[in-house]
Amino acid sequence: MTFNLETLIHQLRTAIVVVDASTHIVEANLAFSSLAGVSTSRALGKPFSSIFSFSTLSVISLQEQLHERSTVRDSDVHFICRDGRTITVELTASEIAEDMILLEMQPIDSQRKLTMDNLHEHQHIASRELIRGLAHEIKNPLGGIRGAAQLLEDPCTDEEHQAYTQIIINQVDRLKSLVDRLLGPSQKLQKRVQNIHEAIETVIRLIQVEAEGVTIMKDYDPSIPEFSFDADLLFQTILNIAQNAVEAFEDETQESASLSFKTRIEHQLVLLGVKHRLVVVISITDNGPGVPSDLMDTVFYPMVSGKDKGSGLGLSIAQTLVNQHGGRIDCESCPGHTMFSIYLPLLEENE
């Protein structure tokens, strides 16, 4: 039995696309149609880059690389689909004819993503424990230094020496405040049953004052019932993330800045090693410059910041606050699309 190219690629479960020298799609199979969320008839003849709203893949760069070797592989290629979905694939590119490239795209399975999430979670915990240990070691002598400076600040001492001791006291207080933030929140959760959207609305009212020129959008799921959480801590978490987005807009020249808040319910998710039947997801998305790629794996670590004057504590503290609720925060980012997703168990483990 004879198969032509079109028949063969439609039998494959791997997403297949063939592009010509001008990077236009000349063939695509049903698996690609399902992956990209576009029919094959609409994809044919279109530039490959037009199928997605964003892609880390450069077909032109692939063409250059394939002049030097027969196959190019990339295990971590990201796409944002027109319907808003973000997908990650393992890609293999091969030249099948003169100026014709065959792209094979295999979505990274959920088990691999779960493994990576667990690895990042353990690394974050280890990093926080190291920072907390160092913070305790720093905090102890600070009290002694401040006490000694106060003893030196005698009323009989001349004004110049009093000014010097006051500088010491002020700087010690500043360092103590920083150390307290490194140690993270120490108060117990003040949880009560309430509406999650009220906490988000409080953040939005505050952000609107600071975010001049930023379009704020809301997409709430009205079916989410009231559940138990600490409103003050969750407010601080959402505020930290939203303020980071607004500050990123301030650092870039951007005509149409937007920030969106979305809520949904997901089923059967594992958070911090515990499987939950129902989970509330709060997604905070902006179209700013994105998190620098070299910071993506450590964005929730203490003292990691992409801002010159940033302390690197905002996202670390936010993750800690959500962990206290039995949840977690995920981040996916590329230029023009950054989304932080807050996952909170809707029901307690024993309910």
Q: How would you characterize the overall build of this protein?
A:
The chain is α+β, with helices and mostly antiparallel strands and 351 residues long. It has three domains: 5-108, Beta-Lactamase; 111-183, Helix Hairpins, CATH 1.10.287; 192-345, Histidine kinase-like ATPase, C-terminal domain (Heat Shock Protein 90), CATH 3.30.565.10. It has nine helices and 13 strands. It has helices at residues 5-10, 30-36, 40-43, 59-66, 110-152, 159-183, 196-210, 231-250, 314-324; strands at 15-19, 25-28, 52-55, 71-81, 86-97, 100-107, 192-194, 214-219, 227-229, 257-271, 274-286, 328-334, 337-345. The strands form three sheets. A six-stranded antiparallel sheet has the order 2-1-6-5-4-3. Strands 8-10-11-13-12 form a five-stranded mixed sheet. A two-stranded antiparallel ribbon has the order 7-9. The protein is elongated, with a radius of gyration of 26 Å.
Q: What is the name of the CATH topology of the largest domain?
A: Heat Shock Protein 90
Radius of gyration: 26 Å
- State the separation between the terminal residues, measured CA to CA: 59 Å
Content-based structural category: alpha+beta
Average pLDDT value? 78
**Main sheet overview:** 6 strands, antiparallel
CATH architecture name of the largest domain:
2-Layer Sandwich
Instruction: State the helix count.
Output: 9
Shape verdict: elongated
**What is the H/E string?**
HEEHHEHEEEHHEHEEHEEHEE
Quick one: how many beta strands? Answer: 13
Percent helix among the residues?
A: 25-40%
Let me know the CATH homologous superfamily of the largest domain: Histidine kinase-like ATPase, C-terminal domain
What's the structural domain tally? 3
The poorly predicted ranges are none
Strand content: 25-35%
